[in-house]
């Protein structure tokens, strides 16, 4: 098991080094950093001085190493567009994205699990059929159209909820939160539904199909034969045994929520990291793009690693065999 | 002629005739593709010719004559007096063009790498499949956005708008190749030990001829399924990117760009500028998707 963990961690580090290389190559070769930092009026001496100051005259590997060292310490350079350190902007924007992701992730998980179990147990009820049909629409509608549809119904026609922004925020330390004001909470509703809907349907459909499979097995029938209560059979025996694939998907979807926040944040003009990234792509703000790439990679690779290692905790059979899932 | 009769009696054709969903979605796709091809003939206006536009026609309601000019627009007009029906036809052209070429690019790349990985094996396989695994952990739309941003940065500013469509194709294609590569590799691993491959090897055929002439035709049917589903994904990906403002340029608006523009008029009550492009996108993506779903089930012998 230890060997497996070490191998997995080693693989993750390699992936991150490659991503770092891509990010570094973006910095170094997309546009000229000197060009971007010095204005029109510059002398050859200025160029040379800046070149050696930035270390651009040193060997490639050395520059890459310096870049990685800076990135690990949270130094991602200065945004071309805003003229401020990227790290500073990211810290400022992170709370709004994380709050949005947390709310929609929780919604997706609760409703996904609940509805999945419900539709698996009451397989042929009309409520289940209604839920399944609605979920099909949820999967096939593009996220941005769902957002626009919600804005149209709840902001334009009914006027109940705000269509853009975070509402009022309260700053606690360096964290600005929308959880503490009523306008902040109201502003969270539409974006988190938009962001969570797809993940919810995904979790629901998976839980449903896994549950239906498990409910047919002998140990569930045996549990019923022992005269256990229906709820005990469904939750303690059936649901627990669907947890391996379900945890994998929920874990992997966590990263997707942060990534897909880009779309939701643009629809609702939510001042988060996703909106920052999309603006960076529009204006070719390389330092911001590179920083986002590295952060999201750490997130994705980290989640993948944790999910893989979680297998051991959830599924005792793997521990007994002493080999990894793959 | 015999071939046509054979095709009519084939399993797939029988399955098609007996699946209403398949027939309806195929008909929808067919009509939309025709509309795209004959867009210049069908469209009442050329939305890119400013001389045919009349600003007074701006914001005409669908199907009602404009108060000042009396012009009638089937699906209304936008703020510039452009006919929404025509912009949709031309927008769908861009959407389909990008979708089809992106999938074709992804398909060629994926099939090539998948064949090589499966047939050659060894280090080559490890490297290709590791890259595929890593890319698969990232959502393809995110990969497309990053590639779009990077390539945009490499291209000089004056060429950016002209090249945007091709950059989009490259970005979406590079985001989708993994599916093809995985399936083709899997199928190749099975096929390469079959007797016909051994026979071909025995008579001294070169590696790439065996891969292309012998193995490729036998791994194509799953590729067809993935291609259809990928097309729906690519159309939606393109629309999403253009909606976010990192896709088709304003000079060549796709359906996503039109929805982006239409969203601006949501609050002022001009719903038709948004609704009709959105409905068109949905119809296009959904019908292609359903066609793909049907094809997957029809080609899967386990489900029969």
UniProtKB/TrEMBL annotation, chain A:
Q: What is its main location?
A: membrane
Biological process (GO), any one: transmembrane transport
Q: What are the subcellular locations of this protein?
A: Cell membrane
> Which UniProt keywords are present, listed alphabetically?
Cell membrane, Membrane, Transmembrane, Transmembrane helix, Transport
The record, for SUPFAM superfamilies, names: MetI-like (SSF161098)
Give the highest taxon in the source lineage. Bacteria
Kindly name one Pfam family recorded for this protein. Answer: BPD_transp_1_N
- Matching Gene3D superfamilies: MetI-like
Could you list the residue ranges that cross the membrane?
A: 12-30, 100-118, 130-154, 238-262, 291-314
Q: Which GO terms describe its cellular component?
A: plasma membrane
Q: What positions does the domain ABC transmembrane type-1 occupy?
A: 94-311
For this chain, the family text in UniProt reads:
Belongs to the binding-protein-dependent transport system permease family.
> What's the name of the protein?
ABC transporter permease
Q: What organism does the UniProt record list as the source?
A: Kiloniella spongiae
TrEMBL record, chain B:
**Membrane-topology descriptor:** Multi-pass membrane protein
Instruction: Give residue ranges for domain ABC transmembrane type-1.
Output: 92-292
The alphabetized UniProt keywords are:
Cell membrane, Membrane, Transmembrane, Transmembrane helix, Transport
Cell location: Cell membrane
One GO term under biological process is: transmembrane transport
Keyword Cytoplasm listed: no
Known Pfam families for this protein? BPD_transp_1 (PF00528), OppC_N (PF12911)
Q: Which domain of life is it from?
A: Bacteria
An example of a Gene Ontology cellular component annotation for this protein is: plasma membrane
Q: Which residues cross the membrane?
A: 21-43, 94-120, 132-151, 163-184, 215-237, 271-295
Family designation: Belongs to the binding-protein-dependent transport system permease family.
Protein name per its UniProtKB record: ABC transporter permease
Lineage, highest ranks first = Bacteria, Pseudomonadati, Pseudomonadota, Alphaproteobacteria, Rhodospirillales
